[in-house]
């Protein structure tokens, strides 16, 4: 009996030592987000944040990852590029996040990359939205399909229904030449022609000139590569001026935002490329997990949306990158884990990265707005 008690005492001491060691290495992992929490794109920025928080709360409720829990710290840039850079510097200095996530805006991302903050602090940015075809950047990781993938999907679909005369509405940013070239290439492959291209100023939603140009050109269909605010302004003006073309938007236009700003009549028949599975129906294990978590949440900050699903995916990728590290998580460890994440299946949605290839998905499907203002795949 004495021997048994002694063995139990030793086992207890060993367990206590293991627990103490785990606590010593455990901590809170801060994820930093600088995005529009106010302004034209605030709904998307906040929805993306809520999606990440759902993923982090699920990981925390399960005991964390290797003894670590997750916390999201947000800062508002109002969509202004200069504020994105300044807020990121402040975030890095004060909260010292392990990783950044959920950024928005073409100029915002370009200015952030040009500032070299990511390289100087050796920190990765996982999950972002831009309206351009941009080159790969060493510390930027996208969890969505590329804009090129979306344009190819849209033009291929149009070709199958006999639509060959296209218009293009786009943001006049630094990446516009690459976008226009990609659109021409995709149209040529589909044996179609872009008969008119009309842009709008970066950071605005002034679409009057573009509306006039595309109404005059009379294409059969118009592809919109723009923010949600600009797409809403274009659709409103185009419908009001008698435009008859079918309207197709890339995923950044955010169907929920359009439905909120425009009438059912204006939105009827608008098709939008989606780069995540629908957040409204269970189609795989990922969507079931998301919908179950939403149902358990007492009060969501913003309504469920595709942006929220994308944020959820980004959050799960970050959790997995931490899980794959041995010992105390580090910024360098996050980057190494992401670069080795060749084919990570989240449950029906696959994300994969390699060194020099940071566009993590090829998933694109189309949704269309019905006469009742409902979204149908």
Automatic annotation (TrEMBL):
Which PANTHER family would you find in this protein's record?
A: BLR6548 PROTEIN (PTHR47235)
Write out the similarity annotation.
Belongs to the leucine-binding protein family.
Q: Which residues form the Leucine-binding protein domain?
A: 29-348
Keyword Signal part of the UniProt annotation: yes
> Where do transmembrane segments lie in this chain?
none
The record's listing under SUPFAM superfamilies reads: Periplasmic binding protein-like I
What does the organism's lineage look like at the top? Answer: Bacteria, Pseudomonadati, Pseudomonadota, Betaproteobacteria, Burkholderiales
Domain of life, per lineage: Bacteria
Which Pfam family, any one of them, does this sequence belong to? Peripla_BP_6
Keywords, in A-Z order = Signal
Signal sequence residues: 1-26
Q: Could you tell me which InterPro entries the record lists for this protein?
A: Leu-bd, Peripla_BP_I
The organism named in the record is Ramlibacter lithotrophicus
Q: What is this protein called?
A: ABC transporter substrate-binding protein
